[in-house]
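Quick one:
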Amino acid sequence: VQLVESGGGSVQTGGSVRLSCSISGYIDTRYCMGWFRQVLGKEREGVATLGGDGSTRYRDSVKGRFTISKGIAKTTLYLQMNNLISEDTAIYYCASRPRFQCSFDAKDFTDWGQGAPVTVSS
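Output:
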């Protein structure tokens, strides 16, 4: 499985960014997919997950602002981020978990993209 993120960059507080993750290789479309983020010196944390049944989960701080979704062909994972704040500044990673049941623990995900930096400034 190969995962390649794109769409990161710099944005002002209150702005929006959409991250994309291109998915290639063999992967069951029912597997759990997720977005994680990491700030230098801190642990990687779950941002949003999407199960094969369409179920979603978000960390509390992004609820109502971020939306995880897949493209119609199921070969692209998206993270729409609105009303961004400085605390959202991080490197964002796309990841897949070879299970139908989702998890919010980075240790349960086996394949990772290279990361896309997002910087939010005032």
